[in-house]
Specification:
Two copies of one chain form a homodimer.
Chain A: H1 3-10, H2 14-23, E1 30-32, E2 35-37, H3 42-54, H4 59-66, H5 76-105, H6 115-125, H7 135-142
Antiparallel strand pairs in A: 1-2
The structure holds a DNA duplex (30 and 30 nucleotides).
Chain lengths: ~140, ~140
DNA sequence: GTACCACCTCAAGTTGACTTGAGGTCAAGG
DNA sequence: CCTTGACCTCAAGTCAACTTGAGGTGGTAC
């Protein structure tokens, strides 16, 4: 496959593919003239990268997880750690989703005054306010 | 509360608080001299913002949801839409979490060759490859 | 009453993740 | 053969979300 086909089938622009290759996130198997040639499995790798991004991981973190070389990482501890990180994110997002869903139908004057909304918010942000800061929620993105 | 206390209790740097105020995401109730004064409920609002960010929403989107004015938005349709968006993100993250968890213990030579891993990945990226592109996964962030 | 220091403003810098543009190259079709 | 267009490189630009810095201000403790 040439870069245009990968772009078409993955939805990832060619410029981004070149950028990812430069970063070591993906690699082409060779060149035909000066054109890059990719294997079909590049598509799975791209899906994995997109997934990692949706999970809020930086490209560098993703590289760590999927391995800069060919195939996913061997560092089982890192993978487990990232899974746990992701799990706590998921809990927060679930609470937020429920908060949003409720807010969409709740008739309280201000959502902040609705006990249900506040409970969900508290659940999501548990531990964030007062002692410890919101850091837990945001440091992943900040770093 | 002055800005330093808000910063301390929320974990959000003062510079960020000023930045958020400028963007209309938060507001101070007044000034004492030239110093901003915040109400205690600013902490909840900040938790909500942090939550929105963890969910991958941009500050502008968050402003739309929580309302640029004082309290959350009245646009129930928008809230429901965002909740659905969030829900599909959550499904992907769950699949990825499970994929990571499994990868951490799986002994297949390459995770891409492990059927279980591929199934989870496929689940997460369903529809992303081949027809439609990965766009669904990433456009939220790109916008 | 004055010195200090935390807070202020406003402009510019930073980082991550890309995109855009200018100028060059080469495989394929005519 | 030779033109053409898709691909190449490399440098610079962009955007969101902040951070940093220089220079100013004013409650508060001494």
């Amino acid at each position: 496959m040439d870069i245009a086909e990968v772009a078409k089938r993955s939805g990832v622009p060619a410029s981004t593919l070149r950028f990812y290759e430069e970063k070591g996130l993906i690699k082409s198997v060779g060149r035909l003239g000066l054109r890059r040639v990719f294997e079909v499995n590049i598509l799975e790798r791209l899906a994995l990268i997109a997934l990692g991004q949706a999970a809020g991981f930086s490209l560098d973190e993703i590289a760590q997880m999927v391995g800069v070389n060919g195939n996913p990482n061997i560092d089982r501890e890192l993978l487990a750690k990232k899974a746990d990180e992701l799990d706590s994110t998921i809990q927060k997002l679930i609470a937020m989703r429920d908060g949003l869903r409720h807010a969409a139908v709740c008739s309280a004057p201000s959502h902040m005054e609705c006990p249900k909304f506040r409970r969900l918010l508290g659940l999501a942000a548990s531990g964030a306010i007062k002692s410890g800061g919101l850091d837990q929620l945001t440091k992943r993105r900040r770093s």
